[in-house]
Design goal:
By secondary structure, this protein is α+β, with helices and mostly antiparallel strands. It is 17% helix and 34% strand. The protein has eleven helices and 38 strands. The chain has an eight-stranded mixed β-sheet, sandwiched between helices. The chain has a four-stranded antiparallel β-sheet with strand order 1-2-3-4, with no helix packed on it. The longest helix is centred in the N-terminal third of the chain and has 21 residues, at 2-22. It starts with a helix and ends with a helix.
Length: 679
């Protein structure tokens, strides 16, 4: 007994000494920290390979947004310096072929974004032209004398009738707006002006831009010059009924000196992201033969410069490949893809052989751990965005067979924070034994053996994927004491086509068992309190959460973020109506309303007893606010404890764009769960 007591005393003294040495316990991520976070995007290697330009996004607490500036990193010393910063927003850095100039897009407060060029040796900066709209997808000509870009050109708005003449000085309401198009608003842009995006070109020394395409199609890009500078190659849907076939596009070749674009591909399906070989003989691109399926992998193709001889290089690779880029010797092509939630860059030979080069590409978002990322390659160097459990996107460099993270933008902030640990969670679906990837974020103060309240967090899409990376939502929930569990259930991308297109109209909510198996696995692991379970998710995650509480009462509360609730109404009110009906269930609402109704969470609302918080953006055109209102109205009529929050000015994709709204959203969800948490 005495030895045991002495040992216990020594252990206590040792623990106390350790606490005293380390100082007070660090807090987890705080809501105010969302204004302090910084991320890397759009890395671009300077010819010569010694410097990389990238876009740095930093929280701006005064203006409640992420401000973007352009920075340079010297790869030898690691030294960084801003090259375009200050008031406004700066993006899209692109080096001239000789590396002596940097083109970029800058927007001053209250003004349209403009195309700028900086001469690196002198530091002089000039605006090339006064542009009426924002330039996109800028690309240098091979001789460095011109810059091509895509830009919106306003059209004529349709009119019906006439408005009385307004007296001088009168303050009248805004006039009526008319449309005769299927797509008259998008989630990213709101109500659309009439007009189209066309390709333009301007002298790199400045002058009047020349418009290269004029037809009523959206010729957007990305844009690639042929090595001789005579043509621009790009992807676009130039069909007369392009709004009714949004999954269609071809590769086009456009004469720089003027003329009509020529189609180099002609199949039914998307052909995109053309990249021209260094000698100009071949074009690499990604796409697939459209089978009207809910999920299909893009594959890597090559064809001759005139469009003949097309062949697929990744036919047997069951992953979605993107961003093709040629090696300098023209013997291989780099691609980016996501495998089991983790981004990678691989080299694909012209014989189809694939070699993985970079293993940790990430940085798709801040609020949730979506896979994604960007990269550039030049001179044997790959610059890429990298993210992991304790780092939002930073700049990574691959060279000579080795990858290195060269920035640590959030080091000072995280030095004062204790982040929740991310651990993998092995899940076997009780439906059929399918293995499911999942991860847990533990509270920062978690101790082994504890059972904590658990939040099941479900991603959107469903053709997307989470990964084991930092996310503010997960860390804020964890800091509030919750274990957060998030799976890549069936219908997720990065696991192949069969896994990604699991949902069928005759098998509603087919991934329900995957989600329940994830919860069971967290309980079996000894970290989740089975009497304190909660569920949330956004978009498809909101849809799945609504279905879950319609099928079980095991969750104490739910938070549905921007959910799909009723397919019958959603298909005809979303901004992607043409895509939605054909690729989801293959039926229009008037053709087979029952299949849509059976797959709608609203059909299960009569079973719901779970207290439910519904949250949606005011300007959400992807899962319109009416979806959330229907569900909230049904809950209220059934007297289920419920609350509705509308995020002012927010779109579907921009629900977390404003740091204050992102923090308030997470805080509201935590408060709702805390209200029903068993103590």
């Amino acid at each position: 007994m005495r030895r045991t007591a002495i040992a216990a005393t020594l252990l206590l003294l040792s623990s106390t000494a350790a606490v005293a040495q380390d100082g007070p316990a660090k807090p987890g991520l705080q809501a105010k920290d969302l204004f302090e976070l910084q991320t890397v995007s759009d890395p671009q290697i300077r010819p010569g390979g010694a410097t990389v330009a990238y876009v740095r996004a930093s929280g701006d607490v005064t203006n409640d947004r992420m401000s973007r500036s352009i920075w340079l990193v010297d790869l030898a010393s690691g030294a960084q310096q801003p090259v375009a910063a200050g008031a406004g927003q700066f993006s899209s850095p692109r080096w001239s072929p000789d590396g002596k100039r940097l083109a970029y897009v800058a927007s001053a407060e209250g003004e349209k974004p403009q195309l700028m060029v900086r001469w690196m040796e002198s530091g002089a900066t000039a605006r090339l032209a006064i542009l009426p709209e924002a330039p996109r997808n800028i690309a240098w000509s091979p001789d460095g004398k011109q810059i091509a870009f895509a830009m919106f050109v306003p059209g004529k708005e349709p009119r019906l009738g006439a408005t009385p003449e307004k007296p001088a000085g009168a303050k009248w309401a805004e006039p009526l707006r008319f449309t005769d198009k299927l797509v008259y608003r998008t989630d990213s842009q709101g109500l659309l002006q009439p007009g189209n995006t066309n390709i333009h070109i301007v002298s790199a020394s400045g002058g009047a831009p020349r418009r290269l395409t004029t037809e009523p199609f959206n010729d957007d890009g990305p844009l690639s010059f042929t090595p001789d500078g005579r043509f621009i190659v790009y992807s676009a849907n130039r069909k007369a009924d392009w709004m009714l076939d949004p999954n269609e596009s071809e590769i086009w070749r456009l004469p720089v000196e003027g003329g009509v674009p020529v189609a180099l591909t002609d199949r039914d399906g998307p052909d995109a992201e053309p990249a021209i070989s260094p000698d100009g003989r071949l074009i690499a691109f990604v796409g697939y033969d459209d089978r009207k399926s809910s999920y299909q992998d893009s594959r890597l193709y090559v064809m001759n410069a005139d469009g003949t001889g097309r062949r697929v290089l990744t036919q047997d690779f069951d992953r979605d490949v993107q961003d093709p880029r040629w090696s300098e010797d023209g013997r291989s092509i780099l691609v980016r893809y996501v495998d089991r939630g983790v981004g990678k860059v691989a080299r694909v030979g012209l014989d189809g052989r694939m070699t993985v080069l970079v293993e940790q590409v990430g940085g798709g978002s801040l609020d949730r751990p979506y896979s994604g990322g960007e990269y550039d390659s030049l001179g044997g160097v790959i610059a890429y965005t990298t993210a992991d459990a304790s780092h939002p996107s930073d700049l990574g460099i691959y060279r000579q067979g080795r990858s290195t993270r060269v920035t640590d933008l959030n080091a000072d902030l995280f030095a004062a924070r204790r982040l929740g640990e991310i651990r993998p969670l092995a899940v076997t679906s009780r439906r059929d034994g399918q293995k499911i990837d999942a991860w847990m974020v533990l509270p920062p103060d978690y101790q082994p053996g504890q059972k904590r309240p658990m939040i099941l967090e479900i991603h959107g899409g469903p053709a997307s994927a989470y990964g084991p990376t930092f996310a503010t939502d997960m860390q804020l929930y964890a800091a509030a004491g919750y274990v957060v569990v998030y799976p890549n259930a069936r219908n997720s991308s990065s696991y192949g086509e069969a896994f990604g297109r699991w949902t069928r109209g005759d098998d509603p909510f087919a991934d329900y068992e995957d989600f329940m198996s994830t919860v069971d696995a967290a309980i079996a692991a000894g970290v989740a309190d089975p009497d304190n379970l909660f569920v949330t998710g956004g978009s498809y995650g909101g849809y799945a959460s609504a279905a879950i509480i319609g099928k079980t009462d095991r969750f104490r509360a739910a938070a549905l973020q921007k959910p799909v609730i009723n397919w019958v109404s959603k298909i005809l009110t979303t901004d992607i109506a043409a895509y939605q009906h054909e690729y989801t269930y293959g039926k229009q609402p008037w053709e087979d309303p029952q299949v849509l109704w059976r797959n709608s969470p609203l059909s299960l609302v009569g079973n719901v007893k779970t207290p439910t918080f519904v949250l949606v953006g005011e300007r959400d055109y992807r899962t319109p606010i009416s979806e959330s209102e229907q569900y909230y109205g049904a809950l209220q009529l059934r007297q289920v404890p419920s609350s509705l929050a509308v995020v002012p000015g927010a779109s579907h994709g921009g629900l977390a764009a404003r740091p204050s709204q992102s923090a308030a959203r997470a805080s509201a969800i935590i408060a709702w769960f805390d209200r029903y948490r068993k103590r």
